[in-house]
Amino acid sequence: MNKPRTTLKDLIGIEDVKLGFFQEAQAKMEELKASNRKLEEKRQEVEAILDAIVDVLIVLSDDLRILSVNNVYHQLFADQAPEGKYCHQVFHRQDQPCSQCPVLSSLNKRTVCRGQGIKPARDMNRSFDLVASPMSQGVGEPNKVLLFMRDVTREKEYQLQFMQAEKMATVGVLAAGVAHEINNPLTSILGFSDGLKRRIPRLESCVEPGILEDMREYIQTIREEGQRCQEIVQNLLTFSRPQNSPFGQVDLRRLVTDCLKIIHYRLKKCPLVNVELNIHSAQPCVYGDEAQLKQVVLNLLTNALDALSGTGNLQITIDQEGEDIVSLEVEDSGPGIAPEYLEKVFDPFFTTKPVGDGTGIGLSTCYNIVHAHAGRIYVCSEPGKGSSFRILLPREAKRKQSAAISMLHGNERE
User: Fold this and answer.
1) pLDDT at 349 over 50
2) Could you give all domains of the chain from N- to C-terminal order, each with its CATH number?
3) What is the dihedral of CA 285, 291, 293, 298, to 10 degrees?
4) Separation of alpha carbons 388 and 382, rounded Å
5) In the chain, what percentage of residues exceed pLDDT 70?
């Protein structure tokens, strides 16, 4: 059997009801309900505004503990319960505050401070513009800071790619001028060396055999070095072509050979590095942009030489993968890549090199170029056993323009 509900009259008592206290309490209850409704509406409005902001918002205490975050944080970062943890532990897994921390500057100066930083997000390393703003608190209350984190990863990547394009355009102009200025004297050098070579038989009767043999060797060296200079100039012109050059058949054998010629000077400075080129395909041709693919191969070769630090083995292998795919593998015997870094090597701005030695954009650019060619790039590495970067490219034109654009801007990682 259900008991009757207890009413406000029962709680106050019949005597107080008669004296009018009930009406006053009831009016006060209505006022409190109306006030609560307004507060709830205000809270929902503030939450809607915060959820509409596309930046990460974090409230920090004066000792750099995270007090609260907005929904954008949960979309980008893996740690879903950051409250109560230090910000440098959550974002950088370190026990000390970051150098040049804008939050510390904001706490010390009591003003808005700005900065930049790279944070390991859920899917990749991301670059953020940071704005730390002190929050007004009552007398005696601890200080707080509101940190705005705007994701500028894509903007930074586009900016670096634009700078690279500008640099390559400048190199192209310089290379064209150098080619024009150098080709004329090179033509004369090669022409006169041919003339000397034709006249050597006339000297056989009046010059000692040993001297004659030296002259033949010198003239042959002049010719070979002159021809090598012409090839280097031509390689620079090809490498610096505009990035939107038409796709066509590219011979990987010739492309890799050209790249090795471009870095020949650096290889001479590393006599303890053994370079081995293995070609297991009779027709190693792929469909692509030669200048862009050269950029990929040069980047992989340069990274491999950096890893070897002047000694070790560098192996380049071109092979056939079925009827339609050609593979290109660059393998070094360097120290390898730590397991925790393998998934990040193609992320923009990720680099294990010291500050100033690398921007972290090289492998990211390689990744985008390979995927724009409807290809795939893989990395395999173990600490102490070297690293291997393997590229798969199609022989024929199988990509669509829209697919290439989506691949170029996608976040997929192998």
Assistant:
1) yes
2) 52-151 (3.30.450.20), 152-242 (1.10.287), 247-414 (3.30.565.10)
3) 120
4) 10
5) 77
